[in-house]
């Protein structure tokens, strides 16, 4: 299998996947870092870091995507993987459900029993857009399930690819590579024009011909599916590529650090730091460049992840705020509001966050009424498999404690991130201790959303918490 890799996880994934597959179209830094040659050949699948750096998206041939999805999920216990119902290039018939300031929300129907919705910018549509309008649209930019954003849509048709993309229309791109393409024994389908990627500058004519032939086959399949679709109800018409998403938890990022360290100098928490902030990538690269190559036995002065240095440079800081990004095994992320950072302890890698609660409803599993003036005080410890929230009344009386079992907590500059593992432990004001939602964890295992090793770890943590609260 030929695999193309891009983003902050590239070095680690090139080393990891290169054991069983051919990594192609490698970037210049990767070519310099590895003592081997990389072909510039068509890729069966591309693995690309998501915009928020929390994981990767996989796109390409269905079999290749399926293989890579399972391999990447196996990186660590706290890695999660999901199919992408709306990969780049997928064509849908959709209905506008709501018009917003810059575009419209479009109902794309259901794929594999999941509702799919996209965002169609007005500048990609001719004419005025109203609720109830029907469009044939294509996914221009997919979005991972943990993102708040929706897949971005367009009305023009394209066939995505690594070396070449086909666009509907008669125009042809200029440049030396395009002129070389005129020598190929393969022509794009009628009405489609090729746009060659920068990597094609180093490709052989044989590789360019193979890429153009593959893209042409996809274009013909796409047009045949569009012609045969009735377009009466929202739904997916065709997907030239399959897609998948993989989210890496904290343990998984450190596993990737260990893989990367086999190739080049890697500081403790390399991927964890880079995942936290845009500016962190430059800082990490600088620190590793100053450190220079090691002989394989030398160690960094830090015994582990330098939480204090990272938080001191990038945040969060006392007096600031963070969002609580509560991930679900299904892939969704729910923001449990924002809270003020009232304390940060660099020794144990923790932040304490306070939120003022509003009246109405009850606290989950505690069955205690929410009152105006209540305060939720939560301490998050970097790397811990749980966190505790203490609810206090207006006069400081403890109203209950809720301990959430989750994947190892990551304290990023603007948010705290983890994936909830369902099972939790609560302590009522009278001292009663309850363990809740075991059935939800069992159901997640049965659905394939949580692996059995991860579920077993969650149960072990819950038992430990129960004993500690006695």
Number of beta strands:
26
The CATH homologous superfamily of the largest domain is named FomD-like
> Which parts are unreliable, with pLDDT below 50 for 5 consecutive residues or more?
295-303
Q: Indicate the CATH architecture of the largest domain.
A: Beta Barrel
Shape: globular
Quote the beta fraction: 25-35%
Compute the separation of the termini in Å: 54 Å
Number of domains: 4
Average pLDDT for all residues: 91
What Rg, in angstroms, do the CA atoms define? 25 Å
- Provide the structure class: alpha+beta
Number of helices: 11
Helical coverage, percent range? 25-40%
Verbal overview:
This protein has 470 residues and is α+β, with helices and mostly antiparallel strands. The chain has four domains: 2-84 and 245-259, no CATH class; 91-240, Nucleic acid-binding proteins (OB fold (Dihydrolipoamide Acetyltransferase, E2P)), CATH 2.40.50.140; 270-307, no CATH class; 313-469, Beta Barrel (FomD barrel-like fold), CATH 2.40.380.10. Helices cover 26% and strands 33% of the residues. The protein has eleven helices and 26 strands. The protein has a seven-stranded mixed beta barrel with strand order 16-17-18-21-22-23-25. A six-stranded mixed sheet has the order 2-1-3-4-15-5, covered by helices on one side. A hairpin with a 5-residue loop joins strand 3 (45-49) and strand 4 (55-60). Helix 1 crosses helix 6 (250-261). The chain is globular. The termini are far apart. Mean pLDDT is 91; it is low at 295-303.
């Amino acid at each position: 299998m030929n695999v193309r890799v891009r983003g902050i996880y590239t070095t680690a994934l090139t080393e990891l996947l290169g054991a069983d597959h051919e990594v192609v179209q490698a970037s210049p830094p990767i070519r310099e870092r590895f003592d081997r040659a990389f072909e510039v050949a068509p890729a069966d699948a591309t693995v690309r870091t998501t915009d928020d750096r929390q994981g990767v998206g996989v796109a390409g041939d269905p079999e290749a995507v399926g293989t890579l999805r399972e391999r990447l999920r196996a990186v660590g216990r706290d890695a999660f993987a999901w199919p992408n119902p709306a990969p780049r290039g997928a064509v849908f018939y959709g209905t506008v459900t709501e018009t917003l300031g810059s575009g419209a929300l479009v109902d794309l129907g259901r794929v594999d029993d999941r509702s799919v919705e996209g965002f169609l910018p007005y500048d990609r549509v001719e004419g005025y857009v109203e609720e109830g309008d029907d469009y044939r649209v294509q996914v221009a930019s997919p979005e991972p399930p943990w993102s708040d954003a929706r897949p971005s849509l367009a009305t023009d048709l394209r066939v995505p690819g690594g070396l070449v993309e086909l666009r509907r229309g008669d125009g042809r791109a200029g440049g030396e590579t395009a002129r070389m393409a005129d020598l190929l024994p393969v022509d794009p389908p009628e009405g489609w024009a090729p746009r060659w990627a920068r990597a094609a500058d180093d490709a052989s004519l044989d590789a360019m011909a193979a890429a153009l032939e593959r893209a042409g086959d996809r274009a013909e399949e796409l047009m045949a599916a569009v012609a045969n679709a009735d377009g009466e109800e929202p739904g997916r018409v065709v997907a030239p590529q399959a897609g998948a998403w993989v989210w890496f938890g904290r343990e998984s990022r450190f596993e990737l650090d260990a893989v990367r360290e086999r190739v080049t100098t890697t500081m403790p928490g390399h991927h964890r730091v880079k995942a936290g902030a845009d500016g962190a990538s430059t800082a990490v690269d600088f620190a590793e460049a100053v450190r220079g190559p090691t002989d394989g036995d030398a160690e960094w002065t830090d015994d582990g992840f330098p939480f204090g240095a990272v938080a001191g440079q990038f945040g969060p800081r006392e007096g600031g705020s963070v969002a609580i990004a509560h991930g679900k095994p299904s892939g969704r992320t729910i923001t449990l509001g924002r809270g003020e950072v009232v304390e940060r302890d660099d020794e144990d890698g923790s932040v304490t966050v306070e939120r003022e609660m509003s009246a109405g409803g009850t606290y989950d599993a505690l069955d205690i009424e929410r009152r105006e003036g209540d305060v939720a005080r939560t301490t998050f410890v970097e790397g811990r498999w749980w966190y505790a929230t203490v609810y206090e009344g207006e006069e400081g009386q403890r109203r209950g404690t809720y301990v959430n079992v989750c994947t190892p907590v990551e304290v990023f500059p603007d948010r705290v991130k983890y994936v909830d593992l369902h099972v939790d432990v609560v302590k009522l004001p009278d001292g009663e201790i309850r363990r809740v939602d075991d059935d939800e964890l069992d159901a997640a295992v049965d659905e394939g959303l949580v692996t059995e090793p991860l579920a077993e770890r969650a149960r072990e943590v819950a038992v430990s918490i129960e004993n500690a609260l006695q």
